[in-house]
Every structure is written in C-alpha cells, then in structure tokens.
TrEMBL record:
Organism, scientific name: Lysinibacillus boronitolerans JCM 21713 = 10a = NBRC 103108
Name of the molecule in the record: Phosphoglycerate mutase
Keyword Protein biosynthesis in record: no
Superkingdom in the source lineage: Bacteria
SMART domains named among the record's database cross-references: PGAM
Keywords assigned: Glycolysis, Isomerase
Signal peptide: none
Keyword presence, Isomerase: yes
Length: 202
C-alpha cells in the first residue's frame, strides 16, 4: 500500500485579492506561511520517504516549509500544477465576471457544462494528475509520500478516485490552503481516506 498526503499550498497574495493564478504565481502571505508552519509540526512524525511538488512557486514555498529539518529530495513536476486558466490568469473574479460572466458561472457552478475554449479542461487536469500519481505509486510501493499541489488539481484527483462525474467536481468539502487529503493505493485500487483536513489550524 502506498499512502499519499496531498497538501494544497498555503494562502497567497492573489488568493487574498480573489485573483486567479492558474499557471501564474504569487507568494505566500504571512497567514499562508504560518499555516504551513503549523502543518509542518503536525506532520513531523509521519515517516515520508519521498516528496513531490508542483513546479509553481507557491507550492515550492509551501513544500520548503513542510520539509524543514528533513533531508528528503523533492521532485518538482509540471503535471502537479494547477489548472491552466488562460485569459483569466492574473485577473480578479470581478474582472472576469465583466468579460466572461457565463463561462465563469459554468466553471464554478456547472463544471460538466464548462467548455475549455481558452483554458485547460478538467479532464486534462485529471489525466495528467492521475498519470503522475500512478507513476509515483509504482516507484514507491508500501511507502508514504508527501505531495504539494493545488485546489482544482486535488479536486480532480478526488473526483477520479471516487469515480464521480465532472458535475460533482466541487462537492464539499472545500480544499482550503494547507488542507490535507489522504489517499491510498492498494494494488490496483485507490481509496480516499480523508479530504481537506484542517486539524492543524484548530
């Protein structure tokens, strides 16, 4: 059995500004760094044998905090990045609602009806993320792996493992900054053990 701890990066400046990031980036806020420090303390007794991280700066910054005092190598990969959001990247939600109101409402409320004309599709995110997890599981059988990624990417992974349709992509719980989702790979079977856990902030 391979166990994965999937962590969303900490809060960023653009998260605070309600500005979409996608493949663009902004640094962690003080809150984001503090939450990652608390998670570091909670995870310190878990015997991770490998760490994999989105290549985005906010994920790297979070991983550096979580890996403090550990001497594990960290593998960075584009396939764990957030969904590519095309023209929306760098814009606030209010700005997007002026220019792409219908598209954005489909994206947030009716994901199965969302057509990825200038963005990456949810299906493409799912495919690259699950391909990466399967590859990691094959390389690290019976090990415990830390992964830092992003909200939509983690949602796509959960949806795929639970074999839900894209229409259920945004089902609760929300994937907050530094939340922990635990999944297991047993043979050819995937199991979701915990979703969006925030115990370290309580």
């Amino acid at each position: 059995m391979t166990t994965f701890y999937l962590v969303r990066h900490g809060e960023t400046q653009w998260n605070q500004e309600h500005r979409l990031q996608g493949w663009l980036d902004s640094p962690l806020t003080e809150n984001g760094r503090a939450a990652a420090e608390k998670l570091h303390k909670q995870l310190q007794d878990i015997p991770f044998t490998a760490a994999y991280c989105s290549s985005s700066g906010r994920a790297r910054e979070t991983m550096a905090i979580l890996m403090a005092n550990r001497k594990l190598p960290i593998a960075y990969t584009d396939d764990l990045r957030e969904i590519y959001l095309g023209k929306w990247q760098g814009q606030t939600i209010d700005e997007i609602l002026v220019t792409h109101k219908l598209d954005y409402e489909l994206y947030t409320n009716y994901p199965a009806q969302f057509v990825a004309s200038h963005t990456e599709s949810f299906g493409a995110v799912t495919e690259r993320a699950m391909f990466t997890l399967k590859k990691i599981a094959a390389q690290h059988q019976n090990e415990t792996i830390l992964i830092v990624s992003h909200a939509v990417t983690i949602k796509c992974i959960i949806n795929a493992i639970l074999q839900r349709s894209i229409s259920e992509l945004w089902a609760a719980p929300y994937i907050h900054g530094t939340s922990v989702t635990v999944i297991e790979r047993q043979g050819q079977q995937w199991l979701v053990k915990d979703i969006g856990n925030l115990h370290h902030l309580q």
